[in-house]
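Hi everyone, sorry if this is the wrong subforum. Our group has a chain we'd like a structural model of before ordering constructs, and none of us has done structure prediction before. Sequence below.
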Amino acid sequence: MKKFLKVFSFGIIVFIGYVLVGNILHLYLFPEQSVVEEAYPIVGDTMVNRFAKERYTVLKTDRETNGRYAEVELHLEPGGAIPEAHIHSNYDETFTVLKGALTLWMDGKEFYLRPGESHTVPKGTPHRPFNREDREFVGIVRVNPPAQWALFITQFHGFLTEKQEPRTNLEFFLQAMLVSSFYGDTYLASPPISVQKVLAFIIAPTSRLLGYKSWKLENSLKWRG
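Answer:
Right subforum, don't worry. Here is the predicted structure as tokens:
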């Protein structure tokens, strides 16, 4: 028993040391570079995620709306869906159907939207849109206020499509833990945000060590025509 307690205590000390030293390196000694101007999305940037059968085109950023909202046109092929249920902690998100139909899962309920219909997801609400029809969905997605949403979707879809095959669950998780603290407004639907913040604090240094980045210039420029 004493030997076990010694090993356990040593493990706790090593873990605490890793967390403290890792975050000193990650946040203070070798922080991520600030996002350069060229990386911010501009009107016309089009993101394509073939794995999720989705396409975004930037219609307006906070620059065109004086910081009031940002807007994209979203296309979902039949069977397409946003990769994971998620939460935006700092802004509302409104989906408006132009063509086809959209199934919007929101906090355990489903809403079926037809052309001309809209639905707003209040900030802090878990949600995920799907296209369960046999025809393409086209709609407008608006977030208010814009925060860093347009930059986030530009960068995260760049990450998702960097390889010829879909990202593994582990790769997705490591990137999510890094970007959740960097952008500070998009989280997975579960576990609770408070738990994710703790996990991000613990895991982000490992993500950095493994070569993950919250943003890359090439992940913005690849979507620019």
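For your construct planning: The radius of gyration is 19 Å. Residues 179 and 214 are 5 Å apart (CA to CA).
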